[in-house]
Amino acid sequence: MIFYRYIGPNEGDYNIAFTFVGAGNGTYKPAGYANYQFVGAGNGSYDPIIYLTPPESHDLVDMEVIYQPWKNFQARTEIALSRMDENLLSSRDDADNAGLAMTTRLGLNKQLIKILGNNFGSVDFAGKFRKVQNQFQYIDRTDEVEKNRNWDIAD
User: Fold this and answer.
1) pLDDT in tens, 19-45
2) Tell me, what DSSP letter sits at residue 43?
3) Cα–Cα–Cα angle for 15, 19, 20, nearest 5°?
4) pLDDT tens digits, one per residue of 120-152
5) Coil, helix or strand for 85?
6) E strand intervals along the chain
7) pLDDT tops 90 at residue 4
8) How far, CA to CA in Å, does 120 sit from each of 32, 72, 107, 146?
């Protein structure tokens, strides 16, 4: 095991970054602010290592179909497929990389309501269905930033 000791200012420089690796998994323990003490393998919680983030890939394809057989009726379907691989260097857990999302909307647009020659205005009817698989990964945020706080939703 390599041992590093601070020998004073202007006497040599070496930057060491310590990373928490779990209780009982490391070789160093904290000994004050920015100081770590060697305690032997398996007796500490820190090691002088830096975890590198593996390369990842995130793809999304989206398609929308709009069908309007009559002037005031419309059917709209949108389907999206995402693929998120959090580690391109490994095939481990690749079975859950793909996810599907779908939205379907049926609508009856601006129908005038006339009864016995009297105009009662107009009305719109619409129904929407949305299904998102747990594996589906959005490219960007889909809810407002403060949604959980505004609606008192636990994270």
Assistant:
1) 999 999 999 999 888 788 889 999 999
2) S
3) 155
4) 888 888 999 999 999 999 888 777 888 888 888
5) strand
6) 19-20, 28-30, 36-38, 46-47, 57-70, 73-85, 98-115, 118-132
7) no
8) 77, 18, 20, 40
Band of residue 12 on the pLDDT scale cut at 50, 70, 90: low
Tokens of 22: 């779990």
Name which of 129, 130, 132 is nearest 81 in CA terms: 132
Distance CA 16, CA 39 (A): 17
Using the structure block, give the residue that is written with the tokens 């690796």.
Answer: 21
Token pair 């107009």: residue: 122
If DSSP codes are grouped into helix, strand and coil, which group holds residue 95? helix
* Cβ-contact 56, 88 below 8 angstroms: yes
- Of 96 and 15, the structure prediction assigns the larger pLDDT to 96
